[in-house]
């Protein structure tokens, strides 16, 4: 099936980069499977639709997943009538447990589910009607949406200040940075985490940020499809590179002072699960003496997990590696969208496709949160993140 390609203009960058639209009680999400060629919003009216949107990657990115889960249920319960507060509580808790099965690695989803379940259980003890429980639930989901944008802006300014200070200490004037995956407005409720730092740094008057490199992020191409789109929309000078070219790039270009990535889950000691390929970037940064910065809201820190060994890593289908999926190039140029899947490897090739990896804290220079920038104490290989919770 063919679709007409939308053109974009940079003047509407922030509108184009809104991954989640909530207008009580209506939720719609930008279908990220069609980006960068088509901006199409899908209505999400139930937790079943929310679960599908997360599992099928129509929406993705740790913070966005949690918020879409919470709001999909908010949309559903806003349209339902419950006879009692207990009935509302039981429905909401059952649906939250179901939403928690959509993807396994990002802690934000589990954190949101735990907090919302606790809230409705407590509320059902005192509320007189189902409507009251629903109202409390929807308010709480809306607070999560607003807080994510607020946290990301704080991460952006904390990270930008940290990088400016480090560049000053290194005696470098104009700098370049490298990022991985997509951690921007599309992965969150707005602004972004790692890409949020880049955005904040670039928007500062007299910015020291000259250029951004970003990896394609095989096999799902969040970098090539989504980060490329965000950087173009914002007119930030940037260059796409193959994931495998980063070590060579760092060797060639000493003005790349930092690699900045997001996180799906940070363990108590600072070990960080993020998109596959992050670990090898951290090794390359260490070897070449560059900063390796993790940007994440404090809810991404899972104090219940001592080290990265305990983080569940999602494994996805082999076909994401053995096949390549995209839109026919000359048709896109003509403004028509036609999806095509190509067979890259010989039929029957086995492939291993972990969606995330774990970077040991030892390789991380700093963890930037909305509250503070954390660095390791001198001589230590792990972080002390106790102050966060
Ligand atoms: O599989 P995805 O696209 O959901 O993975 C996203 C990432 O790994 C991001 O780097 C991470 O969620 C941080 S997003 C602010």
Automatic annotation (TrEMBL):
Positions bearing the site annotation: Transition state stabilizer: 181
GO annotation, biological process: L-methionine salvage from methylthioadenosine
Metabolic or biological pathway, per its Swiss-Prot or TrEMBL entry: Amino-acid biosynthesis; L-methionine biosynthesis via salvage pathway; L-methionine from S-methyl-5-thio-alpha-D-ribose 1-phosphate: step 1/6
Catalytic reactions of this protein: 5-(methylsulfanyl)-alpha-D-ribose 1-phosphate = 5-(methylsulfanyl)-D-ribulose 1-phosphate
Keywords (A to Z) from UniProt: Amino-acid biosynthesis, Cytoplasm, Isomerase, Methionine biosynthesis, Nucleus
Active site: 264 (proton donor)
Database matches in InterPro entries: IF-2B-related, IF-M1Pi, IF_2B-like_C, Initiation_fac_2B_a/b/d, M1Pi_N, NagB/RpiA_transferase-like
Localization per record: Cytoplasm; Nucleus
GO molecular function, one term: S-methyl-5-thioribose-1-phosphate isomerase activity
Pfam families: IF-2B
EC identifiers of the protein: 5.3.1.23
Domain of life of the organism encoding this protein: Eukaryota
Annotated GO CC locations: cytoplasm; nucleus
Annotated family: Belongs to the eIF-2B alpha/beta/delta subunits family. MtnA subfamily.
Function, in words: Catalyzes the interconversion of methylthioribose-1-phosphate (MTR-1-P) into methylthioribulose-1-phosphate (MTRu-1-P).
Designated name of the protein: Methylthioribose-1-phosphate isomerase
């Amino acid at each position: 099936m063919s679709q007409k390609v939308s053109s974009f203009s940079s003047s509407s960058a922030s509108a184009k980069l809104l991954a989640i639209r909530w207008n009580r009680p209506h939720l719609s999400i930008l279908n990220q499977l069609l980006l960068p060629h088509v901006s199409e919003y899908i209505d999400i009216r139930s937790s079943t639709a929310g679960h599908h949107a997360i599992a099928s990657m129509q929406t993705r990115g740790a913070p966005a997943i949690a918020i879409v889960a919470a709001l999909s249920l908010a949309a559903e319960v806003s349209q339902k009538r419950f006879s009692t507060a207990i009935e509302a509580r039981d429905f909401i808790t059952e649906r939250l447990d179901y939403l928690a099965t959509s993807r396994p690695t990002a802690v934000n989803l589990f954190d949101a589910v735990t907090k919302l379940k606790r809230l409705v259980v407590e509320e059902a003890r005192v509320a007189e009607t189902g409507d009251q429980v629903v109202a409390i639930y929807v308010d709480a989901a809306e607070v999560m949406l607003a807080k994510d944008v607020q946290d990301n802006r704080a991460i952006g300014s904390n990270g930008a200040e940290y990088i400016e200070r480090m560049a000053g200490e290194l005696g470098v004037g104009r700098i370049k940075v490298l990022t991985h995956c997509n951690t921007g407005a599309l992965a969150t409720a707005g602004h972004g985490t790692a890409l949020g730092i880049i955005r904040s740094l670039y928007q500062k008057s007299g910015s020291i940020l000259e250029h951004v490199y970003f990896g394609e992020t095989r096999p799902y191409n969040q970098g090539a499809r989504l980060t490329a789109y965000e950087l173009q929309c914002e007119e930030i000078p940037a260059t796409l590179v193959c994931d495998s070219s980063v070590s060579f790039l760092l060797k060639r270009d000493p003005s790349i002072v930092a690699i900045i990535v997001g996180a799906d889950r940070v363990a108590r000691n600072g070990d960080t699960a993020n998109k596959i390929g992050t670990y090898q970037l951290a090794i390359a940064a260490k070897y070449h003496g560059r900063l390796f910065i993790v940007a994440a809201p404090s809810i991404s820190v899972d104090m219940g997990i001592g080290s990265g060994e305990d983080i569940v890593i999602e494994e996805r289908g082999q076909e994401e590696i053995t096949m390549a999926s995209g839109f026919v190039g000359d048709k896109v140029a003509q403004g028509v969208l036609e999806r095509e899947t190509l067979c890259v490897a010989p039929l029957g090739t086995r492939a291993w496709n972990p969606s995330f990896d774990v970077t040991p804290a030892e390789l991380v220079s700093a963890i930037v949160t909305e509250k503070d920038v954390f660095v390791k104490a001198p001589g230590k290989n792990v972080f002390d993140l106790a102050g966060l919770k």
